[in-house]
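Lecture notes, unit on protein representations.

Consider one protein chain, 534 amino acids long.
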Amino acid sequence: MELIFIGADHEVTGSCHYLQVGSKKILVDYGMEQGRDLYENEDLPVKPSEIDYVFLTHAHIDHSGMLPALYHNGFRGEVICTPATEGLCSIMLRDAAHIQTMEAEWREKKADRRGEKSSFQLLYTMEDAIGVMKLFKSYPYDKKFTLCDGIQFRFTDIGHLLGSSSIELWLSEGGNEKKIVFSGDIGNKNQPLLRDPAYTEAADYVVVESTYGDRSHELTDADNIEELAAIISATLRRGGNVVIPSFAVGRTQVILYYIRQIKADEMIPDMPDFPVYVDSPLAVEATEIFYERGRECYDEEALALVNKGINPISFQGLHLTISTDESKAINLDDEPKVIISASGMCDAGRVKHHLKHNLWREECTVLFVGYQAEGSPGRKIVDGADSIKLFGEDVAVRAQIHQMTGLSGHADREGLLQWIGSFTEKPKQVFVVHGEDKVTDIFAEQVHEKFGLNAMAPYSGTRYDLASGKFIEMTKGIPIARAEGERRVSESYGKLKDVSSRLEDMIKAAKGFPNRDLERFARDLERIMEKYRR
């Protein structure tokens, strides 16, 4: 009866945990890493074809995004989740495959122009995404099911996303019986649309996320609506567009809920009919699923609207764009507008095109409404970059940059501690995962100090014997850029490498310049190189 930590350990994305109970081999989540990774992840201890079950806490790509790759490499077991999670994954995994295919085609064309071969490797294809969906099997909340001999489970609504859940697992092996709970991503209390997270009373072991384990969400729902209305109003008055990079599933629907309220309460009276575009086929499909399956997860306020025949995430002036031509037409129209587009971290999807058209315009606003992973384009903009590279070009950052820090689908420190404190029977061990490097250790210490529990933040590769309650192996974490005898490559060095690539392109383009200019260019470069040789 063994637990091995694979992904999102001292990191926020790429969640994955491995369980072995008797002969059964189980994964809890198999997510994609997003942004810059700090540490090497341990490989799965068995072949994908040997995995019997995958329990899925929710549909976000950092928890589900590698399932098609698992299928591609031979997995043919069952994916166990809630019905809403299955519905959202059916569109999200196909979308992830489509984005990869488009990225591969773009990189191949770029490499061809340079006379090179693209090194980009597809993780999986559309066929893999469709194939793994055939292995999904969904179960409702709050009922205990027997999966097989020695394994029972129950899903509990954790309030993070439509269909999101914590997972209780009752395990039996060789006369030993243990219970382990995986929190998944714990939802923020009093957020729109979704119910507050439900609590669990007992467990021997707990694996808990810590995304915001070092901070508090100070703003209320009303504060968020007022802030959003003020930003939209000021931008539209300047004649600019509000570009909102937003996660297509979850965050986009919350923003729509807020804007419906802004319009219903006439909070922007001089421009009550301002247009709003949701420019993401994935977000459009997800919005439909939210409405169709909302009764499973909606809170009382949202359900009250539904019962009155009101769609809580729709309103006059909302435009849902699907085709590429519709997307391009948005920026050809001079009317000030709100553009909600994926991806939320600006690392893929149509939002990159909207940034290219609006980021350099002083009258526009780019509003971030979600977590920005270290190394992502969104994080660079939030951290004050003067420019970012989009489609091979440097685009200046002149637009107003705002971040709604109080808008989060994740519980803050107090919410996380309240969830841990709800266990009436103290767990023997708490494992803290899914947080930035230092945050995981900080939160583990807080759990120990507040509740007197054994709490620690494992690195990838750490192994724990659930039967005996002892560590088999405790790893220290291997920085991802560090190889034998090498120092870790810094972000600054990465920037230098990027500049060297652009310099090479510039030298090639200068072939027809006058000799006098070429000689001056060469002297300047020699001077710079001589300075740093010293």
